[in-house]
């Protein structure tokens, strides 16, 4: 993944802080041009950092993904990491595993119980 700094991180921060939004609003929040934001959102979507949502295919409404949140958490390591993409994947996988374990604990088991079938 090749991110443009600071633009891509500003877009991710805007979606993280303000929630799902459209390019003109993200441009206003970030201080970047609408054209720049319109160009970067599909790239960030391809990287799995944001996703296009909404009732219509052409709505232009985006939200940050869990992978995008992890990318923000690791922002300071972007330039230093040999493989930032792999670093993000490892952290995202680790957080997903932790969340699954916590969810299983809330349900009172480890999620591996056998089910009885009649």
Keywords:
118 residues; mainly alpha; Arc Repressor Mutant, subunit A; 3-stranded antiparallel sheet; 3 strands; 55% helix; 8% strand
What does this structure look like?
The protein is mainly α and 118 residues long. It has a single domain, classed as Orthogonal Bundle (Arc Repressor Mutant, subunit A), CATH 1.10.10. The protein is built from 5 helices and 3 strands; from the N terminus they run H-E-H-H-E-E-H-H. The chain has helices spanning 7-18, 23-30, 34-46, 66-73, 84-107, and strands at 21-22, 50-53, 61-64. A 3-stranded antiparallel sheet has the order 1-3-2. Strand 2 (50-53) and strand 3 form a beta hairpin. The model has no long low-confidence stretch (mean pLDDT 87).
Radius of gyration: 18 Å
Read across the widest sheet, the strand sequence of neighbours is 1-3-2
Please summarize the sheet with the most strands: 3 strands, antiparallel
- Structural class computed from helices and strand pairing: mainly alpha
Q: What is the CATH topology descriptor?
A: Arc Repressor Mutant, subunit A
The CATH architecture designation is Orthogonal Bundle
Cα shape: globular
Number of helices: 5
Number of domains: 1
